[in-house]
Specification:
Helices cover 20% and strands 43% of the residues. It contains three helices and ten strands, in the order H-E-E-H-E-H-E-E-E-E-E-E-E. It is an alpha+beta fold and 163 residues long.
């Protein structure tokens, strides 16, 4: 049997070993997972700040609206941005809730976040007496100066028009 001094020493040694070991504790977060078009977006409800592009994109997609980085006038060729004759056939104007083209308009039926620079959009088009839907990625490139989308199997790369 151990004497009292040995017992106290053993307890102190175990306590020292236990205190030397750090047990990792998970970060305390209050998260809400929102399923959006087969993807999951995690929003920290306790401290959503600081906001960044990724958060803006996720929140915009949840709300079914395009984020500010995607908005503006975009041309397939430089003349699409400068024409004053109404013949800018490659001009695409992007607003928070719609895209406008030369002979058609598209409203956002569904929007999902892929990354801070890529969204998957389900667009409801109307134009020239017809209506149709189209699934398309919208990808920001070149530090936000280019926007790529796919239409009818063709990749279209737009350049941001000057303000």
């Amino acid at each position: 049997m151990m004497d009292r001094k040995a017992t106290l020493f053993a307890i102190a040694a175990v306590a020292a070993l236990v205190s030397a070991c750090e047990i990792p504790m998970p970060e305390q977060r209050n998260e809400t997972v929102i399923e959006e078009g087969g993807t999951f977006n995690v929003v920290n409800a306790i401290d959503p700040a600081p906001r960044d592009d990724a958060a803006d994109v996720a929140v915009a997609a949840i709300n079914g609206r395009l984020p500010p980085a995607f908005l503006g006038r975009w041309g397939l060729v430089p003349a699409d941005c400068t024409s004053t004759r109404g013949d800018a056939k490659g001009l695409m104007t992007v607003e928070a809730d719609r895209l406008t083209f030369y002979e058609s308009r598209a409203t956002i039926a569904k929007l999902a976040t892929v990354s801070p620079t890529e969204l998957r959009a389900s667009l409801a088009f109307s134009g020239e007496g017809q209506e149709w839907t189209q699934e398309t990625p919208l990808v920001l490139e070149d530090n936000g100066n280019a926007l790529t989308r796919v239409a009818d199997g063709q990749t279209l790369r737009y350049t941001r028009c000057a303000a």
